[in-house]
Design a protein that fits this description.
The complex is a heterodimer of chains A (117) and B (380). Chain A is built from three helices and six strands, in the order βααββββαβ. Chain A is an alpha+beta fold and 117 residues long. In chain A, a hairpin with a 2-residue loop joins strand 3 and strand 4. Chain B is 69% helix and 0% strand. The longest helix of chain B is centred in the first third of the chain and has 21 residues, at 2-22. The chains are: A alpha+beta (117), B mainly alpha (380). Chains A and B meet through helix 3 of A and loops of B.
């Protein structure tokens, strides 16, 4: 089963971190990536640019409404994701717990809807 | 056997679609076993199996061949219980799920026990089972490292079933009476299939001790009888004996936990049957332990009452003081009743009266309300 691991964290804290802390975090993510690949469960993943770069689009009465900013203003913002393929939720949860993002924010684990597309 | 496990998951998924419409079968795990067998056979027929030759044939004829049948079926039931009490399932739905899928109770029965509308309960049960299927919650006995936390939610779910039934002491509602029996059955089952888990023994002992006092909880007129005023001759000695056995077995494993401590508290209360008096020193000591490991507000209140008996009402009140500003106490009857009793013992009558009034206003059981009103009247 495929799961999306969504990494939520306080952006300001992440981008305002000291150089040392930043390097440590980078190293942690590199190690995590490696572990996922070596376990054969990695299907993809990316860090996202901060919510200041986000834009929303909605269609209302046939007209497209474009607005600056993320979908919602939250205490923790979506900062990245991983797509993994594992047998069950418990395995997905244990990978989510190991993600460096888990110790600095919140991980959401969502199963992919297999629609056969 | 991966094939058997997949088949069981498929069978459960099938259950998700039929059970909401037809209701759970009388014997859910047997149903699951049969459905699982059918799916193994189907899978082989469709050529999906990767196992070769004779091994496949064996799987088709009996997925559980070579296994001790007595042991395997409880294991499957245990996996079902752990799936129902998985942390990904919302906490309030774990006990209802177990009642439906493991014990085959109807959604309407479960609804009335938990004071929820039947349609709402049915819907929430379906949602929970859909979550199990769609999120891929596994049917598996947790690994050693996960076991303490995972077992805790199973035990809490079973205890929730028990306390729902316990809320009807007169056994006036047949459904509630059934719930305590179901919880005891589950509790016993858990100690058989998880013989090395002392907390399972603790929960069983806790429930047995409570159930042993069933006949003494109300007097002939249906009036409430406080624990330390109960006629111990009405307590069920056999149940107490079984409870004590469980506690002793748990103690030999040297892994204390919340349910074992709660059972020990019950045991200390039950000792009045032999000694003629309640050993408040023991009760308070166990509550101190429980408080240190849980920090729960409910435990704090019970501890304050027990300490009040052991060290005097001032000591008890001192322990209640930090809870004064706690919002949760505004709806918690035992806090006010406990406070009232302690205040009365040191002669602060006006405050005790006010506290009893609060307690009465928060109590839903008429027998208990009458008792508290009687205590309040006795102040003057």
């Amino acid at each position: 089963m495929q799961y999306l691991l969504l990494i939520y964290g306080n952006e300001a804290a992440v981008h305002g971190a000291t150089e040392e802390a930043g390097k440590e975090m980078h190293g942690a993510y590199m190690a995590y990536n490696k572990a996922l690949i070596e376990a054969g469960v990695m299907c993809g993943g990316n860090a996202l640019q901060p919510t200041s770069t986000a834009t929303t689009v909605r269609l209302a009465a046939g007209k497209s409404q474009v607005q600056d900013g993320p979908y919602a203003d939250t205490k923790e913002q979506l900062g990245g994701y991983y797509l993994i393929d594992v047998p069950d939720l418990d395995t997905a949860l244990s990978w989510a717990a190991r993600c460096p993002g888990a110790s600095h924010g919140t991980m959401e684990v969502r199963p992919i809807w297999e629609t056969g597309l | 056997m991966a094939l058997a496990e997949d088949a069981l998951c498929d069978a459960f998924a099938a259950a998700l679609s039929t059970w909401p419409k037809q209701g759970a079968p009388a014997n859910p795990e047997a149903w699951l076993m049969q459905a699982a067998r059918r799916r193994v056979i189907d899978a082989v027929r469709r050529g999906r199996t990767r196992a070769a030759g004779a091994e496949t044939l064996l799987a088709v004829t009996d997925p559980f061949a070579g296994a001790d049948n007595n042991r395997e079926i409880p294991d499957e039931r245990l996996r079902l219980i752990f799936a129902c009490a998985h942390p990904a399932i919302e906490a309030v739905m774990r006990a209802p799920l177990i009642l439906q899928t493991v014990l085959g109770l109807e959604a309407a029965q479960i609804a009335s026990a938990f004071l929820v509308r039947p349609a709402a309960m049915a819907q929430r049960l379906v949602r929970a089972k859909v979550k199990i299927r769609d999120a891929g919650i596994p049917f598996a006995i947790p690994e050693r490292e996960e076991m303490p936390a995972r077992l805790e939610s199973v035990l809490e779910a079973i205890y929730a079933v028990f306390t729902q039934g316990w809320a009807d002491p007169a056994g006036a509602d047949a459904r509630s009476r059934g719930l305590t029996e179901e919880a005891l059955w589950l509790g016993r089952l858990l100690t058989v299939i998880l013989p090395d888990e002392p907390e399972a023994l603790g929960l069983l002992a806790l429930m047995l001790h409570a159930d042993a006092r069933r006949a003494a909880r109300r007097d002939a007129q249906g009036g409430f009888v406080a624990l330390d005023a109960q006629d111990t001759a009405l307590w069920d000695a056999a149940l107490i004996g079984e409870a004590e056995q469980a506690i002793l077995r748990a103690a030999t494993m040297g892994r204390p936990g919340r349910f074992q401590i709660e059972a020990a508290i019950q045991s200390a209360h039950a000792h009045r049957r032999i000694s003629g008096r309640t050993d408040w020193g023991a009760v308070a000591g166990f509550y101190d332990l429980l408080w240190r490991s849980t920090g729960s507000a409910v435990v704090a209140v019970n501890r304050a009452v027990a300490v009040g008996r052991r060290d005097g009402p001032q000591a008890g009140l001192a322990l209640l003081a930090p809870l004064q500003e706690d919002q949760r106490m505004s709806g918690y009857q035992p806090y006010w009743a406990g406070r009232a009793d302690l205040l009365a013992r040191i002669g602060r009558i006006a405050e005790a009266d006010a506290a009893y009034e609060r307690a009465i206003g928060l109590e839903t059981d008429p027998a208990l309300r009458r008792y508290l009103a009687g205590q309040r009247a006795a102040l003057h």
